[in-house]
Design brief:
Distance between the termini of chain A: 37 Å
Radius of gyration of chain A: 14 Å
Structural class of chain B: mainly beta
Largest sheet of chain A: 7 strands, mixed
Order of helices and strands of chain B: EEEEEEEEE
Strand content of chain B: over 45%
Number of strands of chain A: 11
Number of helices of chain B: 0
Helix content of chain B: under 10%
Strand order of the largest sheet of chain B: 1-9-8-3-4
Shape of chain A: globular
Radius of gyration of chain B: 13 Å
Oligomer: heterodimer
Helix content of chain A: under 10%
């Protein structure tokens, strides 16, 4: 079974440009999460999808970030316009909907390293 | 979610048993304890999860005392490939869709 995949692995853009990150979750996983780690900080939650619906976007830093999950499969995270402080590693994770069981294991992708110059 | 405290770093030699203790004094009744491992340039990877007493899998063991205010991740006979950052997380992980809150983790360095 394929794991969570992310594209690109690394993106270097200039301040003011737009970048779109993509995440393909494990097939059949309803839950999809975005996290990020900016330089020297902990990994922080950004938002959570259940299928195509945004369940929790409390971690989104501002309105320059737009996440979508059309059709409930892959997700994109767009940053427009990018700022220097957006540099970091963006992780995507997915999990099955196992409410009522003892586990909700999240499987992470390798991350996309974003560098804004 | 409950705040966790764990060592910033640990060093070990190959073949030794490594125990990493995490404190979570404010753990709630419905909280579980989960450990993730992260290698450089990779995303975090689930290792083990427990609620109370002891849990063991092919990778590690997790010891949780009766008061659940701490937990210990035990890695038997570590190898160089176990060098990674280990995160202790606490939350209602029996509910689907719980956002994970990561701390700084414990950086384990294994040398020969």
């Amino acid at each position: 079974e394929a794991g969570v995949t992310q594209f690109p692995s690394h993106s270097v853009i200039e301040k003011g440009q737009t970048v779109t990150l993509r995440c393909d979750p494990i097939s059949g996983h309803d839950n999809l999460y975005w996290y990020r780690r900016v330089m020297g900080k902990e990994i922080k939650f950004l938002l959570h999808f259940v299928k195509e619906s945004k369940q929790d976007e409390s971690g989104m830093p501002n309105n320059r970030f737009l996440a979508e999950r059309t059709g409930g499969t892959y997700s994109t995270l767009k940053v427009q316009p990018a700022e220097l402080e957006d540099s970091g590693v963006y992780f995507c994770a997915s999990s099955q909907d196992q409410a009522g069981t003892s586990t909700d294991t999240q499987y992470f992708g390798p991350g996309t390293r974003l560098t804004v110059l | 979610l409950a705040k966790t405290t764990q060592p910033i770093s640990m060093d070990s030699y190959e073949g030794q048993e490594v125990n990493i203790t995490c404190s979570h004094n404010n753990i709630a009744t419905n909280d579980y304890i989960t450990w993730y491992q992260q290698f450089p340039s990779q995303g975090p990877r689930f290792i083990i999860q427990g609620y109370k007493t002891k849990v063991t899998n092919e990778v590690a063991s997790l010891f949780i005392p009766a008061d659940r205010k701490s937990s210990t991740l035990s890695l038997p006979r570590v190898s160089l490939s176990d060098t990674a950052v280990y995160y202790c997380l606490v939350g209602p992980f029996n509910q689907a869709g719980t956002a994970l809150i990561f701390g700084k983790g414990t950086t384990l360095s294994v040398s020969s």
